[in-house]
Amino acid sequence: MKPPLGEAQLCDLALHYAARFATTAARLEAYLGRKIRERGLAEDADGRTIEVDIPALVARLVELGYVDDDAYARMRARDLGGRGYGARRVEESLRHAGVGEAVRTAHAPGEAASRRAAMLMAQKRRIGPWGAAPEDPLAARKAHEKAVAAMLRAGHQYDHVKVILAAARPEDVEDWLAEAATDEGMDEQW
């Protein structure tokens, strides 16, 4: 059994965790709380349990730049968008990680990035113009419903899903994507 934690050991655990994983202040605080529940806190010379201010420890690491919610949100949003996940799924992931609403809003994808993620997912899953439509009408309907459900679960807007599934050729989707990039005035990077 591992010994109870003192303030120095908690600081070491926090630094090790922040160095090893991209994390948020909320996740680091939860990690330290879990470690305290698992191992307990050490006692001082008088036999009293020491008091450790976990939020202050986490705040100090944020102040030093070891933990940065903004950088985490930027990296996570770009990663999920690059894997084909939609804005709703990105927002949920950031909320679950403890990222504040203002930071989540700042890193929400624009229209062009949302369309690009939807197109990427359709390409990966061979949905819409990238897939082969079954000849049987019942099988085609089931495949369509399955594609809609998969894209909605991935966090895409229903309007985007409709456009992609209605497209006859991949070029139609690429034109739709280029239209959003033009409307935003630049080729937005997520």
In short:
The chain has 190 residues and is an all-alpha fold. It contains 10 helices and no strands.
Account of the 3D structure:
The protein has 190 residues and is mostly helical. It has two domains: 61 residues; 114 residues, no CATH class. It has ten helices and no strands. Helix 2 packs across helix 3. The radius of gyration is 23 Å and the shape is elongated.
Radius of gyration: 23 Å
Give the distance, in angstroms, between the N- and C-terminal Cα atoms: 46 Å
- Poorly predicted runs: none
Q: What is the H/E string?
A: HHHHHHHHHH
Mean pLDDT comes to 92
Strand content: under 5%
Q: Give the count of structural domains.
A: 2
Number of strands: 0
Number of helices, where a helix is a run of at least 4 consecutive DSSP H or I residues: 10
Shape: elongated
Percent helix range = 55-70%
Mind describing the biggest β-sheet? none
Query: Helix- and strand-based class?
Result: mainly alpha
